[in-house]
């Protein structure tokens, strides 16, 4: 699992969270205020649909105006490592 941190303000925060929810490789999103405190933590599963994501995005829109800057910390699912099958001995 990899972790990535990004900083946003206002509606940029909402737009980025929408993008992240729709990505298939995101496991968890944490939103921190400008003091570094976690304000919202969103577990994201592969089957998240718009009906579930809509209230979350609405809540994020409501908090977006409360701080000068927000930090999004994203846990990405590690990409599966492809292993090549060993070639069978031709004896």
In short:
With 91 residues, the chain is α+β, with helices and mostly antiparallel strands. It has two helices and four strands.
Write structural notes for this entry:
The protein is α+β, with helices and mostly antiparallel strands and 91 residues long. It has one domain (2-76). It has helices at 10-22, 50-63; strands spanning 2-8, 26-32, 38-43, 70-76. The protein starts with a strand and ends in a 15-residue tail after the last strand. The chain crosses the membrane at residues 38-67. Residues 4-75 form the DUF4342 domain. Keywords: Membrane, Transmembrane, Transmembrane helix.
Blueprint of the fold:
Layout: E1 2-8, H1 10-22, E2 26-32, E3 38-43, H2 50-63, E4 70-76
Antiparallel strand pairs: 1-4, 2-3, 2-4
Helix pairs in contact: 1-2
Radius of gyration: 18 Å
- Give the uncertain stretches in residue-range form: none
Helix-and-strand structural type? alpha+beta
Largest sheet: 4 strands, antiparallel
The pLDDT mean sits at 77
Tally of contiguous helical segments: 2
Q: What's the domain count?
A: 1
Question: Which percent band covers the strand fraction?
Answer: 25-35%
Shape: globular
Tally of extended strands?
Answer: 4
- CA-to-CA gap between the ends? 41 Å
Order of helices and strands: EHEEHE
The strands making up the biggest β-sheet line up spatially as 1-4-2-3
Domain DUF4342: 4-75
Transmembrane segments: 38-67
Pfam family, one: DUF4342
Protein name: Ubiquitin-associated-domain-containing protein
């Amino acid at each position: 699992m990899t972790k990535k941190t990004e900083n946003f303000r206002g509606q940029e925060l909402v737009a980025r969270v929408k993008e992240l929810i729709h990505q298939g490789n995101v496991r968890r999103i944490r939103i921190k205020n400008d003091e570094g405190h976690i304000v919202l933590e969103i577990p994201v599963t592969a089957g998240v649909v718009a009906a579930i994501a809509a209230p979350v995005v609405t809540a994020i829109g409501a908090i977006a105006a409360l701080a000068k800057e927000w930090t999004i910390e994203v846990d990405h699912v590690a990409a599966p490592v492809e292993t090549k099958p060993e070639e069978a001995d031709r004896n």
